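Re: [help] complex structure
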Amino acid sequence: LPLKFDWRDKHVVTPVRNQQACGGCWAFSVVGAVESAWAIKGQPLEDLSVQQMIDCSFNNDGCSGGSTLNALLWMNQTRVKLVYDSDYPFKARSGLCRYFSTSRPGFSIRNFAAFDYSDKEDEMAKMLVTFGPLVAIVDAVSWQDYMGGIIQHHCSRGEANHAVVITGFDKTGSIPYWIVRNSWGRSWGVDGYAHVKMGSNICGIADTVSTIFV
Amino acid sequence: RPSAALPRTWQRNPEREAAAFRESLSRQRYLNSFFSVENSSAFYGINQFSYLYPEEFKAIYLRSRSSRFPRHPAEVQMSLLNVS
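Output below.
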């Protein structure tokens, strides 16, 4: 594994978005990972519709909350194609599901893998480098005040409540860390990203991790 | 405004936001008082969420439900070796 790796350097990660007052982090994270997976496969990098997932993933509760696992199960079972964000823009509230013709351009997934990588963060890094950005769920209570630096304290595990995308890692310094894309706008954290210490399952970052295959 | 998504019981007003802001400042001081000697350690400060109490922040933004995932198995580690 390289000491430093970030899918942003390959230009396959869309800009950080802002979920506003919608509790749809679960959708932002899954859609973000699908965008990257398709870009890694050679498709142009495009913003895909988070609103479509919020409205149409029937096994979740839209802006009132959801689970990344249910979102991925929905994508996998229905073979739904996510349309472009411009075709189904984000409204920051749940709405009625809009359906599109099957001939409309869209992006589905082939499969996904969901594992607990606690004590195996090196394996998690391998998955990231091999397949693309990872969907993870973390305990983000202390992230309310986060401004920058590497999160290594004040973060419990076992209380996962927020979905994010892990785009890379950096092991070149004294504290190795994961590079984590959030959905609270670019003004939060480090240009919308958080840095979380690797190797100690800080914030439960390795407990519930999904890899997407397209 | 994030507070628009809050339950009715948490209706916002300037006094409540000011009190939440003061509590945020105090909490940030506390968080920054540990480990400040470590150069790379996280630091905490005022941002767009400072006008919210932690329970409000959690109610609006931390809405992901967690599931228990299986432990990553050794055989998957082996199969990855064959991935180009």
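Chain B touches chain A at residues 1-5, 24, 27-28, 31, 34-35, 38, 40-45, 47-50, 52, 54, 57-58, 60-73, 76-77, 80, 83 (CB under 8 Å).
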